[in-house]
Amino acid sequence: MDLLLFLKAIIMGIVEGITEFLPISSTGHLILASELMNFWTPEKSAVFVVVIQMGAIAAVIYEYWSRLWGAATGIITGEENGRRLGLGLILASIPIILMGLTFGQWVKDVLFNDITVAIGLIVGGLIIWWVEKNPRAINAPEVENISYKQAIYIGLIQVLSLIPGTSRSGATIIGGMMLGLSRKAATEFSFFLGIPVIVGAGLLDGWQSRHVLQGTTDWLVIAVGVIVSFISALILIRVLVAYVAKRDFMIFAWYRIASGLIILLFALTGWKLW
User: Fold this and answer.
1) Does residue 140 sit in helix, strand or coil?
2) Which residues cross the membrane (predicted)?
């Protein structure tokens, strides 16, 4: 048993849990962390990066179970807040599911690289900076107040997150704020919206790539990553909700721009970042 491999899986799980719900691109950070540590083979690492996201999304389900259950049952019972949230999540999920099924493999083959991540980080950072400097009037203070029209627009914006470095959380949170959602509502809707997308992508990628994982050790490495990402994501969710109640996202804008420029510099010059 390769103990170093398991240690790397733990680190990757922590990176996933911390970055999944921050507007800084979890996929981009996982790609870079994988290259930094020379984590596993490229094929197994690609599967790992997608599948362990289900650990982070399990933390959302655990933390918000009652509200999610209300959204699911509200569609059937007709309870207003639950129905609006449930149908809104369905409408917002359709665009990325269709685009992911159509272009998902192409994105993995072509765009999973340092330069794409760097550009995505920089552009996303500039957008966050602009939105924070030009705040919109809030018309949806709570996630249950989001209209179907807003949900559809957020779903369309979420499609951009297929590009590594863009950040699914960043696209949906900032997109929501541009449409008049409060930071709290945009953040929580982003949490919920990740459930069908991440679970679907994780199960699909895991099934399609099952031949890549061979033997008990490979599946144990995946399991370790999922468990660690769950624990770290659960902590991050609670911290982030408290953070957005009092502060803006400017720190993440500057972080994205600075890290993107550093990665781009090294990628274009051929210097070794590590």
Assistant:
1) strand
2) 45-65, 85-103, 110-131, 151-177, 189-207, 219-241, 253-271
